[in-house]
Amino acid sequence: MFQIGDKVAYPMHGAGVIKCVTSEKILGEELKYYILEPCIGELEIKIPVAKIDNVGIRYIISENEADKVIEEFGSCKCIEMSNWNKRYRENLDKLKNGDIFEIAQITKTLIERDRKKSLSNYERKMLSNAKNILISELVMSKNSTYSDIERLLMSKIS
Questions:
Q1: CATH number of 63-157
Q2: Within this chain, domains 7-59 and 63-157 share the same CATH topology
Q3: How far is CA 27 from CA 21, 31, 32, 38, 143, in A?
């Protein structure tokens, strides 16, 4: 399905490049793995080839789609729910889904909520994760840097 060098987005981890395909023998069974090198951070992620359809990996968005995400980032409506636990669970489901537009909305909503009222530790961690996932895909789509994309997004809501 994917080839070495493909730029992909992996829900909950962000965007990266398929670095290679490896095989490992586990419990007597030969298993193949994609090795994903994220564009942010220094981890390598092993993704079982046999389960690729279940984990939600997709090709990164085009540069035009990235421009649309950035434009909509400034104008998307923030959804306010008073119950933080329900809000957290719904946001987590959206992050797991991997839809870049929903991740942008989560990021913007949490940034604005943090400006008005301090976030809980769980939501602060979610904001950091969502922001990194969002920016990593935009960095790869627009062939830019983390700081340039972050500055561009923040200018949309300042």
A1: 1.20.58.1290
A2: no
A3: 19, 10, 14, 28, 41
Quickly state the pLDDT bin for 158 (edges 50, 70, 90). low
- Choose the CATH number for 7-59 among 2.40.10.170, 3.30.9.10, 3.30.429.10, 2.40.160.40: 2.40.10.170
The answer to whether 95 touches 123, Cβ cutoff 8 Å, is no
d(CA 18, CA 3): 7
Whether residue 83 is predicted with pLDDT greater than 80 in this model: the reply is no
pTM metric for this prediction: 0.90
Kindly report, residue by residue over 9-34, the tens digit of the pLDDT.
Answer: 999 999 999 999 999 988 888 999 99
How far apart are alpha carbons 99 and 134 in whole angstroms? 10
Neighbours of 9 (CB within 10 A): 23
Letter string b/e over residues 92-125, b meaning 16 or more CB atoms within 10 A of that residue's CB: bebbeebbbbbbbbbbbbbbebeeeeebeeebee
